[in-house]
Write a structure and sequence with these properties.
The protein contains seven helices and five strands, in the order E-H-E-H-E-H-E-H-H-E-H-H. The chain has 221 residues and is an alpha/beta fold. The protein has a single domain (2-211), classed as Rossmann fold, CATH 3.40.50. Helix 6 (166-175) crosses helix 7. The protein is globular and about 50 Å long.
Length: 221
């Protein structure tokens, strides 16, 4: 089977991405990054998702971004509840670049040519590293910055959800048989993974279930 490294955060988008990679015939190696996020219960959810969706293994790499701060997810900054103009304070500087770089390194070790991530450019918070331009640029980088790329392996970065709405993602997850109750999306989830119902991540998730006419299985505190 073809091997792939799949970034798994524990949220609904990465769960659907992992299931799609498996459906496409990849042997999936799940990767999560403990970056000092305040919603650490998502890492427990990532382990559940990786196990339930048939990942070959699940690796957690520690890169503590609290050392640089700059985000409501890694520093003592209030998590916004009602959206607003511009890029929100929940943006974590360089997070997706760092995560994909770690995934790229592991892929080289595994002799895997494919990376999967669950970024989305439709129903999202305006993060610059969730856009098609970012994925395309990182793929170009991957093919010039690695031994594998220089020696002729074409490295591909897959973002299968990038043009989907949250409702489309919910529908796709239902088709794939994903138990969304096992996922955690909330920026302020408690240690048991229960959601706050007010942050941007909760709002977008709830709107996705509502638009898809699917009962929301999220556990709220």
């Amino acid at each position: 089977m073809k091997r792939a490294v799949v970034l798994v955060s524990g949220g609904m988008d990465s769960a659907v991405t992992l299931a799609l990679a498996r459906e496409q015939g990849f042997e999936c190696h799940a990767l999560s990054v403990a970056y000092g996020q305040r919603h650490a219960s998502e890492l427990n959810a990532a382990a559940r998702v990786a196990r339930a969706l048939g990942a070959i293994e699940h690796k957690v790499v520690d890169v503590d971004l609290r050392a640089i701060g700059g985000s409501a997810l890694t520093a003592d900054i209030a998590v916004p509840e009602h959206g607003g103009a511009g890029i929100p304070s929940t943006y974590v500087p360089a997070r997706n670049t760092i995560m994909l770089s770690i995934a790229l390194g592991w892929a080289e070790v595994l002799n895997a040519a494919d990376l999967f991530c669950g970024v989305n450019a439709v129903d999202y918070s305006g993060y610059p590293d969730c856009r098609p331009e970012f994925i395309e640029a990182f793929e170009r980088l991957a093919n010039v910055a690695t031994k594998a790329g220089v020696e002729g392996t074409t490295i591909r970065v897959h973002a299968p959800l990038i043009r989907m709405s949250k409702a489309d993602i919910v529908r796709e997850g239902m088709r794939l048989g994903i138990d969304f109750a096992e996922t955690v999306s909330c920026y302020r989830a408690d240690p048991d993974g229960r959601a706050c119902a007010h942050c941007d991540a909760c709002r977008l998730r709830a709107e996705g279930f509502r638009a898809a006419a699917v009962p929301d299985p999220t556990r709220y505190r």
